[in-house]
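User: Run a structure prediction on this.
Assistant: Running it now.
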Amino acid sequence: MIGRVQQIEQEIRDLEVAIAELNSAIEDLRQGYLDSLAATFVQEMILAVYRVCTGKYALAFLNLSLDQKFQLQQDLQILCHRFRAQILALSGAISDRAEASPTDSPTQPEEAALTEILSVANGAVSDLLTSFGFPPRSEQSPLVQLLDLELANRQALTRRSEIRVLAARSQSLKAEVSKRKQAKMSAEAELAWRSTWMELLQD
């Protein structure tokens, strides 16, 4: 029975090593994913505003003075790079959130954090356009969405898929660790029971 407990302990150690290796690979993929999205975000947001200014609301853009056109473009770039920095800084925060909520789905931390940043970014850029005389965008679709960024960057889409696979594997191994720990406690309890058992002497 002691040998069984030791075997289970070794199985737990092996599983924990495998989990650590998976988590390290996930972190590398996650940072690459965020790097790809951050660069694509700037391109796609600027492209979205370009389409607003040269498409449906071309007249509003043409009515701006030269200085106003320049200022709009400069302010847009400042906003884009501010939110780009926020996307790049997400990796550590996402890791902490994933550890705090181990029952989350594999890519839930990325989705939640990125969706939040993009929501704020869309609002900020919409407010910028409004401040330059463009109609409010409150009832219109967002300028940029997460799916837009992933479709515009195949590398990001591939990395997210890989994160999903490895994270699911990590979750499975964590569940197995829990089972092994329960098995270890049962084996230890059985060993303790046997070590203290003594037949009651009867007349």
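The first helix runs from residue 2 to 54.
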